[in-house]
Amino acid sequence: MKASDLHLPAVAAGACSTTGVDPADVNRLLTLRLILPFLGLIVLNSLDRVNVGFAALRMNAELGFSPATYGFGVGLFFAGYMVAQVPSMWLLQRYGMRRWMCGVVLSWGLVATATAFVQDATSFFALRFALGLAEAGFAPGVTWCCARWVPQRFRGGAIGLTMVAIPLSVVIGGPLSGWLMEIRNPLGLPGWRFMILAEGLPTVLLGVALWWWVVDSPEQATWLTPAQQRWLADTLRVEARGRSEPHATESQLQPSSQRMWQALRPLLGSTLFWGCALVWFSLLTGAYGLMYWLPLVIKQASGQGALAIGWLSALPWVGVAAGMLLNPRHSDRSGERHLHIAVPALVAALALVAAAFAPHGALALALLVAAGLGLGAAQGTFWTLPTSALSPAALPMGIALVNMAGNLGGLLGPSAIGALRQATGSYQWPVLAVAAVMGLGAVVVLAMRPSDDRRP
């Protein structure tokens, strides 16, 4: 991949001067009508996925779950997620963004709501697996939609903004989940059950509402003027042609399910693909380690109640959100991607190591905030690499497979943390293991850096 691949092609850049369209105006409309709704949906997506971490404060004791049982159940989500990832992306290609998004959001909302009524380990395992099936493809689908709608010059900021939803869901969801667990609810349910129910139902309602909001392509976006639609379509077409094989026809630039499968074979032989997959695995191992175990770590260290733990758990995710907002935009301005991923990932790994040996809780929490800042900065910039380098035909399959490999960190990470915690009685070794995986990801990004981008 050349450094020039990461910039808007000159032909597309010149289009605005002949059409009178201001690219910044188009970007603002895309942010308002596409990116911000995506952000809201990902907040709910993440909340419905990880609120079990707060439910565990009481659910584990009520249902008799050991740390290993809980960690295995959490990890089963990712087994379902990976099984259905590629089929979900195929459905997106086959039926379009509107029908696909409504179906995915409704499905995960119903399963998340049903989790409020688990009775034992078997039902917990089954619903976590089903939630993974329902949510599969949503995150890579959003990334693909950003690549199909947002020009490269704005893409880092756009994808970074959608990813802010993940830490935002914890910053909001931590205190909210703690509050919902402690209030006297009108249904008389145990607090953790009411919390899951109250956070799942809004997703169901929004899944229905999306039918009247989402459109399948920029040409159908009535909130863009005809001139803006033409400029955006032309810009994206020129960028797609720049990533395609020489002499590709116009029809060959358009993704289809058949071309997606044809792209699989060369994709598996691509060093770029495998490097991206390994890096995303390392970053999600760190992210899901924080998501699912941080409330329990804080409980062991502080002995606080659910509401206080919710507030304390939110602090590292403030750092994650700041990293996701600031670093991708700086990367967009500079045009550099690799160092904007590798350096923050390394900072996050070192901060986790320091946190594992911190002598008291306040310092450890400050180091976790620093780790969150680095983690968010790396995650927020990561998707600019595959979306800028893979060909249009390979892009949907590439995004799905990279995300599958990354979410292997979600499948293995929580289970490994639970097993290490049960074997050692401490969270120190699990934290060190997560830091080592993230450090490996930083090294891989540096190895992927093109030689002509390196400075003496």
Please provide a written account of the structure.
By secondary structure, the chain is mainly α. The chain has a single domain (24-215, 269-448), classed as MFS general substrate transporter like domains (Growth Hormone, Chain: A), CATH 1.20.1250.20. Helix content is 79%, strand content 0%. Helix 19 packs antiparallel against helix 20. Keywords: Membrane, Transmembrane, Transmembrane helix, Transport. Residues 34-453 form the Major facilitator superfamily (MFS) profile domain. The chain crosses the membrane at residues 30-47, 67-88, 100-119, 125-147, 159-180, 192-214, 267-294, 306-326, 338-357, 363-385, 397-417, 429-448. It is a multi-pass membrane protein.
Task: Give a quick rundown of the structure.
With 456 residues, the chain is mainly alpha-helical. The protein has 20 helices and no strands.
Percent of residues in helices comes to: over 70%
Derived structural class: mainly alpha
Discrete helix count: 20
- Give the domain tally: 1
How would you describe this structure in keywords?
globular; MFS transporter; 20 helices; MFS_dom; Growth Hormone, Chain: A; 79% helix; mainly alpha; MFS_trans_sf; 456 residues; disordered N terminus
